[in-house]
Every structure is written in structure tokens, then in C-alpha cells.
Amino acid sequence: MLRRGKNARAFIVPVVKHREQPPRIETNPAIMAGKPVIRGSRVTVEQVLRECARGANAAEIADQYPRLTPEAMVAALALAAEVRVA
Predict the structure, then answer these.
(1) DSSP sequence for 18-41
(2) Is this structure's pTM higher than 0.85?
(3) Are strands 37-38 and 25-26 parallel, antiparallel or unpaired?
(4) How far is CA 36 from CA 13, 62, 81, in A?
């Protein structure tokens, strides 16, 4: 959605459509303040993304978070691809 500000500068307002989360991801207000986490763990999707951003590969992330499966990492990345944050 495109809107105009006071100074007539255009900016993009992200539009997030509610979609079903991947089955390996859960959101619960009682776990990690409601952030999306890998089901059955306290590893947030944000933590997985930060590890990827710093250049860690799947094996390094799995070493750091032993309960994290390759499928769970893919689910975290899939969720991040669907929800774009400005």
C-alpha cells in the first residue's frame, strides 16, 4: 500500500496477510513472549534468522541448537519469507 506523508514523500506500509504457520512453528503468548518458535522448543524463528544472517550454515546452527531439525530450519525460513518486516 502506498501512502503520502506530510512532505509528499512516498513510503511503503507493509501489508501482512494472516496465513497459516508451517506445522513446525508455533506462537503461544506464554512461550518467549508470543514470538514464533520451533514447536517443542524455545528457539525462536528470529534466532534462526540471526544465525543465518551472521553466515552460519545448517550444521553450525544444529550444533548450537541440538533440538533443531533441518525441517524446522526450513520452516523458520519459510515463515520469514511470508512475513516481511519493514
Answers:
(1) --PPPTTEE--TTSGGG--EETTS
(2) no
(3) antiparallel
(4) 22, 18, 14
Residue 46: strand, helix, or coil: helix
Instruction: Name the helix (H) or strand (E) containing 86.
Output: none
Q: What angle do CA 83, 84, 86 make, to 5 degrees?
A: 140
Determine which of 4-8, 28-32, 44-48 has the lowest per-residue pLDDT on average.
4-8
User: 19-51: b or e for each residue (b if 16 or more CB lie within 10 Å)?
Assistant: eebbebbeeeeeebeeebbbbebebbbebbeeb
**With bands split at pLDDT 50, 70 and 90, how would you rate the model's confidence at 67?**
confident
Domain annotation for the chain: domains and CATH numbers: 17-82 (1.10.10.10)
Contact, 35 vs 46, CB < 8 A? yes
pLDDT for the residue 48: 94
